[in-house]
Amino acid sequence: MSTSVVVGSPVESYVAPFDELVGDASAPAWVQSMRRAAFDRFTALGFPTTKNEDWHFTSVAPIADSEFVLLAAKTGDIKRDELAAFSFATGQTAAWYTMVFVNGRFAPELSDCAKLPNGVKLWDLASAWTKAPDVVDRIGKITSYDLNAFTALNTAFMHDGAVVQIAKETEVDRPIHLLFITDANAAKGVMHPRNLIVLGRHAKATVIESYVSTSEAVYFTNAVTEVSVAEGATLRHYKMQREAARSFHVGTIEASQAKDSHYVSFSLATGAALSRTNVYTTLGGEGAGATLNGLYMLGDDQHCDHQTQIVHAQPNCFSRELYKGVLDGRSHGVFNGKVYVHPIAQKTDGKQTNNTLLLSDTAQIDTKPQLEIFADDVKCTHGATVGQIDRTALFYLESRGISRPLARRLLTYAFAADVLETLEVDEIRQSLETATLERFV
Amino acid sequence: MPLLEINGLRANVGDKEILKGLDLAVGAGEIHAVMGPNGSGKSTLAQVLAGNPAYEVTGGTVTYDGRDLLEMQPEERAQQGIFLAFQYPVEIPGVSNAYFLRAAYNEIRKAHGEDEVDPLEFADIMDEKLALVDMDPSMLNRSVNTGFSGGEKKRNEILQMAVLQPKLGILDETDSGLDIDALRIVADGVNTLKRPDNATIVVTHYQRLLNYIVPDFVHVLANGRILKSGGKDLALELEEKGYDWVTSGHVSMGAGA
Ligand SMILES: Nc1ncnc2c1ncn2[C@@H]1O[C@H](COP(=O)(O)OP(=O)(O)OP(=O)(O)O)[C@@H](O)[C@H]1O
Ligand SMILES: [Mg+2]
Question: Could you give the ipTM of this predicted complex?
Answer without folding.
Answer: 0.94
